[in-house]
Amino acid sequence: MRDLALSQLLSGKSLTSNGGVFAPIIKEFLESALAAEMEVFLDEDQRADGNKRNGKGSKTLKTIAGEVTIDTPADRHSNFEPEIVKKRQRILADNLAPQIISLYGRGLSLRDISAQLKEMYDTEVSASVLSEITDRIIPQVEAWQSRPLDAVYPIAWLDAIHYKVRDEGKVASRAIYNVLAINKEGKKELIGMYVSESEGAKFWLSVLTDLKSRGVKDILIACTDNLSGFSEAILSIFPNTEIQKCVIHQIRNSLKYIASKDKATFMKDLKRVYHAVSKAEAERELEELEQKWDKKYPIVIRSWKNNWPELSVYFKYDEPIRKLIYTTNAVEGFHRQVRKVTKTKGAFTSDMALMKLIYLTTENAAKKWTKPLPNWALTFQQLCIHFDGRLNPDI
């Protein structure tokens, strides 16, 4: 065997490729190890119970040395659970599983992953095997979705991102509901991720109910888009939460109804409203906006007036808090990170396939969420004062 290895090495042939010397070495080692495990397993108690060896089976494993077919010992009662090569294991020692899951989490298709493994290890791994490996994170996803949460979150952003999924042979729309929050330490945390057929206040109600069941007792400030019924859903679960509707969403929705020739002038006037230094000044500018544009664009002006109580919450806070809450940019920024990974995908094969990839993307994003926001100590003190009795320092 040593001479064969030396010969292959000198000839430039890969020792780990099909036909390389490592394959028979691995086969011999595994079969010996399995035989030893079986010997230990069939102790006096097993034999007294009538259990004994019952021939051999075979299994083909994917290894760095290519495919290796090994003989596997069996027992009469089928109770033997080997450790070195588990019963349903098809890739040796799972040594490739972390790499496969990492590549999957970066957005590579199963075909691309298979090609990379072929290039790196000269090993053919089928799409079905790759799918089985990525499915191993499903329990992690489910545990993560149901994990206990903090009692209080100072700020939370709630928004949905939309995808296509194959459902019973047809392509259907899915909304992924995400709740990104700032915890008391000032660190970002995705506290909720849920999938539904469409975005609506009714499903948001179930999302918020789930957050409460997982331990959330209070959200001080919730930042949302202008979805109808959203505020009512939040307040039905967390009645003391302050709701800040996204100013940028309001602007986008307004511009849909403004003629192209008027957009630049209208925006110049509108900026005076949401860039005002105080709520009183903003309301004066809003009155002037109404006087100038109400006759031409009454629907737009009415929308600003009707939504003003929840569009103007940010004016009561200092600049750092204002920047955090007056838009849903924080969660939209997270969604942009997700889309970088998912942009090459067409329709996902299932809801869970979609959830797996977003979970892995979240895990990668969370690696950068280890530090508190800039100047969080001062921001936290201000929030403690604004929400006296609801947010308390741990001192």
TrEMBL record:
Q: Which UniProt keywords apply?
A: DNA recombination, DNA-binding, Transposable element, Transposition
Which GO terms of the molecular function aspect are on file? DNA binding; transposase activity
An annotated GO BP: DNA transposition
A Pfam family assignment: Transposase_mut
**Keyword set includes DNA-binding:** yes
Q: What InterPro entries does the annotation carry?
A: Transposase_mutator (IPR001207)
Q: Which residues belong to the signal peptide in this entry?
A: none
Tell me its family: Belongs to the transposase mutator family.
Q: What does this protein do?
A: Required for the transposition of the insertion element.
| Protein name, as recorded | Mutator family transposase
